[in-house]
Amino acid sequence: MVMTRLTNRSMAFVLAGGRGSRLKELTDKRAKPAVFFGGKARIIDFALSNALNSGIRKMAIATQYKAHSLIRHCQRGWNFFRPERNEYLDILPASQRVEENKWYLGTADAVTQNIDIVDSYDVDYVLVLAGDHVYKMDYEIMLRQHVETGADVTIGCLTVPREEASAFGVMAVDRTDRITDFLEKPADPPGTPEDATVALASMGIYVFAWPFLRELLLADSADRHSRHDFGGDLIPQIVRNGKAVAHRFSRSCVRVSPDAPAYWRDVGTIDAFWKANIDLTDFSPELDLWDRHWPIWTYSEIMPPAKFVHDEETRRGTAISSLVSGGCILSGTEVRNSLLFTGVHSNSYSVLDHAVVLPHVEIARSARLKNVVIDRGVVIPEGLVVGEDPAEDAKWFRVTDNGIVLITQEMLDRRAAG
C-alpha cells in the first residue's frame, strides 16, 4: 500500500517580512530573505526549495520591509507553479487588507490577516517557516512526527551548546520531546534530558493542523494584550494549555553524507554571512549545493560562462579554491578562497582574497581586497586596498569585530568626496 505524503495535504507559509538589521547596509535596499547567498541564490530560496523538494506545492510568502527586491526575485524565479495542477505560490505584502492603518503586527498576525487565502488552499496542515535561514530539510519527516504524536504544534529545534543558546528561544523537554517550557533568550538555558551541556533552540519552524491554528489565530487577534507573535504569544500558550512537541533537526536534515553534521546557519550578521559564503569554497563544504537530488531552486540570469583572461607572470586570470559564477570576467586578476556572484568583472593586477563579491560588481586595475563583502553593483576604483590596514578601512567602510569589511557604493562615494 502506497502511503500518501502529508506534504500533499499541506502548505508552507513563509514569513519574509523582516529587515535583518544586523546585516547593516546589506539590508538598506532589501529584506534579509532577499539577500544574495551562495553565488546564485537568495536566502529565501532555501526555505522555498525545502518545501518544493519535500513535496509541498502550495506556498504563501508574507512580505513587509523593503519587499520589492524579494517580490521581483520570486516572480522571476518561482513562477513555475501551475494552478491547473493545484499548485500555488502567493506573495502577500502587508497591504492593509484588514484595516487601513494596520500592517503586519507580528508573525502570527501575518497569518491571521490572510486566513481567507489559507482557507482557499483547502489544506489540512500549515507549515510556518522563517524565510531567512540557510539549511536543507525534508519537511515530510516533521509532518509525520506531528501526526504520529498528536501534537497541537510541532517545533523545529536545533541542538546547540548551552552557552550559545541564550540567543534563541529555548525548549525545555521531557524524555519524549514534549515541550514543558519555552524560554525566550534565557540567561541560563535548560539542557536536554540526555545531555546537560546542550540545549534545544527554536528554528522558527512550526507545524499546525489548520483548523487548530485558525481558531488560535482568531482568538489571538481579539486579545488586546497580545503581541500577535508565534514565539512570544502563541507557542507559550500551547505549551501551557496544550501539547507542544520538539522536532529535532538532526532527524530531517538533508546532509552531504550520513555522518555529516546537521547544517543550519543564521547568516544574520556580516561576519556570519561572510563565513557561510566563504565556507562554500572548502574542499568538501558542509552545505552541498551540487546535490541534484535536493537542489536549491532560484532565478538564474541568462549569462555566458565565466571567462579568465591573460597569462603573464603578474597579470594572470586565475581562481584557486573559489566559486566563480556565470558572466564573470577575470582579466588578469588573481582570486583565492573567494565567492564571486553573477557578472563580476575584475581587471588586471587585482587580487581578491577571501572576498564575497555580490552580483555585477566592477573592479578596476590594481585593487587588493581581502576579507571583504562587496555589495551588488559596486564600482571598485583603481588601486583600492582593503583588508591590510584596519584603521584606514574603518575611516570609510564598515569593519566588524572580526575584521570583515563591508563595502557599498555609498561608502566609496563618501571616500571619493572626502
UniProtKB/TrEMBL annotation:
<keyword id="KW-0320">Glycogen biosynthesis</keyword>
<feature type="binding site">
    <location>
        <begin position="184"/>
        <end position="185"/>
    </location>
    <ligand>
        <name>alpha-D-glucose 1-phosphate</name>
    </ligand>
</feature>
<dbReference type="InterPro" id="IPR023049">
    <property type="entry name" value="GlgC_bac"/>
</dbReference>
<dbReference type="GO" id="GO:0005524">
    <property type="term" value="F:ATP binding"/>
</dbReference>
<feature type="binding site">
    <location>
        <position position="104"/>
    </location>
    <ligand>
        <name>alpha-D-glucose 1-phosphate</name>
    </ligand>
</feature>
<dbReference type="InterPro" id="IPR005835">
    <property type="entry name" value="NTP_transferase_dom"/>
</dbReference>
<feature type="binding site">
    <location>
        <position position="202"/>
    </location>
    <ligand>
        <name>alpha-D-glucose 1-phosphate</name>
    </ligand>
</feature>
<keyword id="KW-0067">ATP-binding</keyword>
<comment type="pathway">
    <text>Glycan biosynthesis; glycogen biosynthesis.</text>
</comment>
<dbReference type="InterPro" id="IPR005836">
    <property type="entry name" value="ADP_Glu_pyroP_CS"/>
</dbReference>
<comment type="function">
    <text>Involved in the biosynthesis of ADP-glucose, a building block required for the elongation reactions to produce glycogen. Catalyzes the reaction between ATP and alpha-D-glucose 1-phosphate (G1P) to produce pyrophosphate and ADP-Glc.</text>
</comment>
<dbReference type="GO" id="GO:0005978">
    <property type="term" value="P:glycogen biosynthetic process"/>
</dbReference>
<comment type="subunit">
    <text>Homotetramer.</text>
</comment>
<keyword id="KW-0808">Transferase</keyword>
<dbReference type="Pfam" id="PF24894">
    <property type="entry name" value="Hexapep_GlmU"/>
</dbReference>
<keyword id="KW-0321">Glycogen metabolism</keyword>
<feature type="site" description="Could play a key role in the communication between the regulatory and the substrate sites">
    <location>
        <position position="64"/>
    </location>
</feature>
<feature type="binding site">
    <location>
        <position position="169"/>
    </location>
    <ligand>
        <name>alpha-D-glucose 1-phosphate</name>
    </ligand>
</feature>
<keyword id="KW-0119">Carbohydrate metabolism</keyword>
<dbReference type="InterPro" id="IPR029044">
    <property type="entry name" value="Nucleotide-diphossugar_trans"/>
</dbReference>
<feature type="site" description="Could play a key role in the communication between the regulatory and the substrate sites">
    <location>
        <position position="103"/>
    </location>
</feature>
<comment type="similarity">
    <text>Belongs to the bacterial/plant glucose-1-phosphate adenylyltransferase family.</text>
</comment>
<dbReference type="InterPro" id="IPR011831">
    <property type="entry name" value="ADP-Glc_PPase"/>
</dbReference>
<feature type="domain" description="Nucleotidyl transferase">
    <location>
        <begin position="12"/>
        <end position="281"/>
    </location>
</feature>
<dbReference type="InterPro" id="IPR056818">
    <property type="entry name" value="GlmU/GlgC-like_hexapep"/>
</dbReference>
<dbReference type="GO" id="GO:0008878">
    <property type="term" value="F:glucose-1-phosphate adenylyltransferase activity"/>
</dbReference>
<dbReference type="Pfam" id="PF00483">
    <property type="entry name" value="NTP_transferase"/>
</dbReference>
<keyword id="KW-0547">Nucleotide-binding</keyword>
<feature type="domain" description="Glucose-1-phosphate adenylyltransferase/Bifunctional protein GlmU-like C-terminal hexapeptide">
    <location>
        <begin position="304"/>
        <end position="407"/>
    </location>
</feature>
<keyword id="KW-0548">Nucleotidyltransferase</keyword>
<dbReference type="InterPro" id="IPR011004">
    <property type="entry name" value="Trimer_LpxA-like_sf"/>
</dbReference>
<protein>
    <recommendedName>
        <fullName>Glucose-1-phosphate adenylyltransferase</fullName>
        <ecNumber>2.7.7.27</ecNumber>
    </recommendedName>
</protein>
